Automatic annotation (TrEMBL):
The keyword Acyltransferase applies. The lineage of its organism: Eukaryota, Metazoa, Ecdysozoa, Arthropoda, Hexapoda. It comes from the Eukaryota. GO terms for biological process: ceramide biosynthetic process; sphingosine biosynthetic process. Signal peptide: none annotated. Pathway: Sphingolipid metabolism; Lipid metabolism; sphingolipid metabolism. Keywords: Acyltransferase, Lipid metabolism, Pyridoxal phosphate, Sphingolipid metabolism, Transferase. It comes from Tenebrio molitor (Yellow mealworm beetle). This is Serine palmitoyltransferase 1. Belongs to the class-II pyridoxal-phosphate-dependent aminotransferase family. GO terms for cellular component: endoplasmic reticulum; membrane. Pfam families: Aminotran_1_2 (PF00155). Its EC number is 2.3.1.50. PANTHER family: CLASS II AMINOTRANSFERASE/8-AMINO-7-OXONONANOATE SYNTHASE (PTHR13693), SERINE PALMITOYLTRANSFERASE 1 (PTHR13693:SF2).
Amino acid sequence: MIDEALFQQRLNDFKPEPLITSVDPTKEIEILMVAEDDDNIDLAKVNYLNVLNNNEIKKTSEDTIREYGVGTCGPRASYGTTDVHFELEKNLAELLHKEDCLVYCYGFVAISSSIAAFCKKSDVVFIDERANLPIEQGLDDARSKVVKFAHNDPEDFKAKVEKETKKTRKFLVVEGISWRTGKLCPLPEFIAVAEEFKIRVFLEESHTLGVFGATGRGLTEYYDIDPKRIDMIFGTLEGAIGCIGGFSAGSHDAIEHHRLFGSGYMYSASLPTYLVKVVLKSIELLGDAPQKFSGLAKSFHQFLEEECRFKVESHPEAPFKLIRIEPKMDETKVHQYCKEKGVHFIQNDEGLVINLNVRLLDEKERLERVYEVLKGASELIA
């Protein structure tokens, strides 16, 4: 028998933590929506290769909607796959020099599902201490043992590996460009350690696909690494490619396994066919844009460091520039000054984030205006 009085007392005493943190309705939340015109330049939007402004891509999207509609409303594993999905998977596999590929509806899901489909509870997975949220989510789902090494430090990775003596499967997950710091992964050094200890390598390429390497193939092209040395390449299509969705590329056997065990592939509605066509067209139009963008990224980085005297955390060829200014009050001052002058970018917990657009190379007046505003902002805190 249950003591009714005791039960009521315990029920009254039960005060669980809230499932979510309430938002203060009186607190102002800034939503950055910039209408680009003669007075405003949008460097907050991720549009590295300017595909969002491409009329040929817009026309392709419109034509596909007229033929296929706006979506299948079903997951890839059932009735969510069209011939266009297969075409994109073939093209992405060829671009990345991998045997096969999967296309996901959402970039976050592509990354987390790619990890959870292969890593299990008994496995050990080595990740960077600054790993992005989708990687962490994938490992939460996998319930593997996670070992973190110092940011972009192959030597610390090796030291951590040497301590894991248990005979079990081991994986390394690295980001081409860190979402949090903008720093470039020293991939050859990491692969050397992984091969020495027979560790499988997963490479996340969200911010390197399309902008690194002569043809935009990413870090394998940039470092001249045989893609076969990497077990899985995955990431979002939401950077240089200018669409939503994600991908995962590997061997035929790995992708077949992925089709059966990738939760996002099995249970999430597929990427709408017109957006699949957008990705296909974006890849088709890459041309020399990756090389042009690399030149812009390096010259922009040099300007920020030499002319503005800013501390730029990100790599010189990174598609976004992460600037850290102390004290934070000065960081806010720079952000506010540029916003008032019509140059818009992001301020977050990591610092100031400027997303580059290759279009600036063809519009010299706008690029010079960006330089002028940033230089003026730097003089405020000199």
